[in-house]
Design brief:
CATH topology of the largest domain: Rossmann fold
Number of domains: 2
Largest sheet: 5 strands, parallel
Order of helices and strands: EHEHEHEHEHEEEEEHEEEEEH
CATH architecture of the largest domain: 3-Layer(aba) Sandwich
CATH superfamily of the largest domain: Response regulator
Number of helices: 7
Radius of gyration: 18 Å
Length: about 240
Amino acid sequence: MNIRIFIVEDELIHAEALKIVIEEAGYDLAGECSNADEAFELIKTANPDVVLVDIALPGVLNGMTLSEKIHKELEIPHIFTTSFTREDIIDQAIGTNPVAYLKKPVESSNLVAAIKIALQTKTGNQETEKTSKSEYFFTRIGNKLVRIHFDDILIVKADGENFVSLVSDKKETACRITLKEISGMLPESFIQVHRSYFINMEYLDAFNESEQTAILKGHHAPVARSFKKDFMKMIQKL
């Protein structure tokens, strides 16, 4: 059975670009709509595997409220494809539980990886209610799409505006994705300890109080004052 993708996008050029990626990846187009008010019933009828949603859409609803409705009532995973980069909008978008938040123009490799994560998430939700995140994702390294397992990651840190570094025990991998985008994919074992850092609490070895750093297998991550309270609560639970 082919994977079916529904597109909610009011800009023709971006809609066509998304359709090309979907076709080249071997997925089927389940439908498309340019108006948020009309999209929900069309999506409900089409019952796609994944929905791609722009935030700025004509109608009383917008991409944000539509996505929240899709998530709560249809339980279909959604991916935001948008031009918005303001932090308050990104935070609001994360509240709708998207699989990913991709900035336009969307790179085909990032979109395909996000769709794969969405499918993994959907399968996991069907198999067990305890699993709400994918165990892995794909990132481009050279000319390859490489699978990265979250269980192997100690630290995720911002590396410029559009990249993060994934720190594991033996190596560090550069990944073309924003910290905000990847934060929505991380399992519950990850917590944010700094505006530029997430750490995997499963690997926490120590907390250096004088330096205010978390230590994971010899790797250090700063713990900012604004995140320390939640960090200390997590330590008490371990």
